[in-house]
Amino acid sequence: MKKIFSIRLLLGCKVDSREVFEEALLLVKLNNIDDIQEIITAYMNDLEEENDNKIFKLISLLDYYEVTDEIEFSVPYLQIYSRFIGEEELELYPEFN
């Protein structure tokens, strides 16, 4: 039986010769956490298709945990939120220190 995990990603992308960063929170259904890379790759491919074929790169898998609530969804992943991160916020992420 598949388990539901919450995963939080930090992504980077070039836009008009500037690098921008985005944090995204997804719910995913996995047999085990080792299958996470396949879902992340599918999410990033979908992002590139939806955004004029911009190239996104995974900076970091910031966090993940198993969700104990019963949540129904039929797609491979469910995006809960996504937000751009301003330059002044980057110092809050260990990946940039």
Order of helices and strands: EEHEE
Helix content: 10-25%
Strand content: over 45%
Q: Please give the largest β-sheet.
A: 4 strands, antiparallel
In words, what does this structure look like?
The chain contains one helix and four strands; from the N terminus they run ββαββ. It is globular. It has one helix at residues 36-50; strands at 3-15, 18-30, 56-66, 77-85. The protein has a four-stranded antiparallel β-sheet. The relative contact order is 0.29. A hairpin with a 2-residue loop joins strand 1 and strand 2.
Helix and strand topology:
Blueprint: E1 3-15, E2 18-30, H1 36-50, E3 56-66, E4 77-85
Antiparallel strand pairs: 1-2, 1-3, 2-4
In short:
15% of the residues lie in helices and 47% in strands.
Please supply descriptive tags for the structure shown above.
97 residues, single chain, 4-stranded antiparallel beta sheet, alpha+beta, globular
